[in-house]
Amino acid sequence: VAEEDRLSNVLEQASSMCETLVDVTKQIVTDATEQISESEDAYQVRLEAHEVFARNALLRTEEIQNQFRINGRAALQIGNQLEFAERKRQRCESASFLIRRWWLMESLAEQEALSGEPLKVQEEVRGVVPLTSCRMDPLFTKPEHSLEASRALKQLRQVVRSRGNANAGGEGQTDSTSTRRFDLTADLIRRTSDAMEQRLLNTFTEIYGKGGTYDFSVPKPRAGIIQWQELRNLANALLLFDAGRSLHKRYVEMVVSTRFPELFDKSKIVQRSDGDNEKGRGEAGEEKASVDDEDVDMDTTRSQLSSLFHRVSEVCMQEFQLIAYVFDSPSDGVAGAENIPLTVARALCTRVIGDPNHGLQARINDLLESIDRKSDFDSGAKKLDTFVVIHEKAAGLFALLKDAAERLLRHSDPQDSPSARSAVESLKSFLNSQEISLNSAHRQGYLNLELRLLHHKCCGALDQAGCALVRPIPVKVDQTLLEKGILQEYAAPLVPLDKEALKRAGFTDILSGPLKQSVLRQPLIDATDSLARASLMFGREGGESAARV
Question: Which of 414, 446, 208, 219 minimizes the C-alpha distance to 318?
Fold first, then answer.
């Protein structure tokens, strides 16, 4: 019984503990439900507030966007108007500067006319007169202002030309006083422009004459390196005078006179040849010296041709680099339709290669004429070799020049423009025409000489074999071609064997003479050598000319 009572009490206590735990859990769940409900209500309130805020922000954004669309066009118009106003302001400043310069030149011209003392324009611009004693504007007397002075003079010349065009059209009716004052000012502007251009040309000549290494990787001038930066600045200034034509002509003349003395001064080659001949004579006798003189002259001729082509190639490659850096001026509306560096390069090639009196073509003709003065058989054979040397050297020279034309323009954006590519192709076409002209002038003479010598060798082989040859019938000369100065194609005369001499000689002499294997083989050997030379002269082009040979 006691055990049951104790167990009953324990169960009652457990039951009361469970009820208490259930009540506490129920209360906690109830509190948690109430808290969640309150949190949900607060979150819903905040969500609605955020929604209202986002809608208000969206409305404000749309309003700002609409205002930007409306006001942006106005702002763009205002920006365009500001840019237009800035351009007008710059034009007004340029016009004001031009008017002040015109008034100054006009005042100087009036003072010169009233005083009767001529203004020393040349002396002041060249710096002969001290700056403190100069009457002209310092813009024209100080070398550091050369570019600004050139631009000002170009604008003044445009004013003079426009006034002249207006008078020619009958639009500028003014009184005699204004016309006289304008003429005096125009004359002073002309003299100042001539003096300024001459000073710039002399400075360019002086700097180029100093020479130096062609190193364009150095940004600042150094000793021993050509001052290409100064040359570029001078070229930019001279570009404002007749598009730089005087500079281009002067530059070509300087290259010719300083880099090609042996090409454009015949006395130097003559003196060099005479010195070699005197040295070759030495202690030998007069008869032996005469023979050696011919050999030395022929060898010297081929050596001169090789050195001549090498010199032209070397100088042109260097000068093309200098042209690309010095004459590659920014386009300022003064240049022509063709690129300036390519224009200068073409002028240089024209003078060096195609000069009628002292060019490469003329010098080659002089050297070939020196061979023609010797009428012996060996000189003709050596002249053929000289023709081949000329052809090979010319092909290498023009290949290098065409490659240099591709690299003439420095790596820049305008290089890939259609105008620049067209200019490069134009220069390459010009070089092709020069190469064709140089080769075609010699190919006809080569072909006639080759056929004449081949005919001579064949007749000589028969003569050495003891054959009697009949006197040939003279070939008729085409007087029409002769009057036009055209070289007639060589036609070998028919030289038959004497049949009576062959009958008297008998079969044994015939077999050991004209029908001997060595005699029959020799014309084939000579013809093989001739075809080998002809393939070098005509094989590159192929086609009809090569097949005809």
Answer: 208
The runs of H, that is alpha helices, within 282-359 are 286-326, 340-354
pLDDT tens-digit readout, 372-425: 666 556 666 777 777 777 787 778 888 888 887 777 655 444 555 666 677 777
Any idea which of 41-45, 197-201, 303-307, 398-402 has the lowest mean pLDDT? Answer: 303-307
| Residue 333 φ/ψ region, left for φ over 0, alpha for ψ in the -120 to 50 degree band, beta for the rest | left
SS3 309: helix
Its sign, for the CA torsion 44, 49, 52, 55, is: negative
Q: Does residue 337 contact residue 422 with C-beta atoms inside 8 Å? A: no
Residue 293's Cβ-count burial label (10 Å; 0-12, 13-18, 19+) is middle
Burial class (CB in 10 A: 0-12, 13-18, 19+), 22: exposed
Closest Cα partner for 318 from 408, 398, 223?
A: 408
- CA 358/CA 354 separation, integer angstroms: 8
- Evaluate if residue 485 carries a pLDDT over 60: no
List the end-to-end C-alpha distance of the chain, in Å, as a whole number.
Answer: 150
CA pair distance 43, 385, nearest whole angstrom: 106
Residues in the chain, overall count: 549
Supply the pLDDT for residue 420.
Answer: 66
Q: How far apart are CA 442 and CA 448, in angstroms?
A: 10
pLDDT per residue as tens digits for the range 230-287: 999 999 999 998 888 899 999 998 888 888 776 655 555 444 444 444 444 444 344 4
Q: Tokens 């073509």 appear where?
A: 361
Contacts of 225 (CB under 8 A, 6+ apart): 212, 213, 215, 218
φ and ψ at residue 261, rounded to 5 degrees: -70, -35
d(CA 118, CA 114): 10
Measured at the alpha carbon of residue 461, what is the angle toward residues 456 and 466, in degrees to the nearest 5? 125
| Rounded Cα–Cα distance for residues 442 and 384 (Å) | 10
CA distances from 312 to 97, 273, 353, 356, 402 (A): 48, 20, 9, 17, 14
- pTM over 0.90? The answer is no
Interatomic CA distance for residues 479 and 483, integer angstroms:
6
Residue 375 tokens, joined: 């009428």
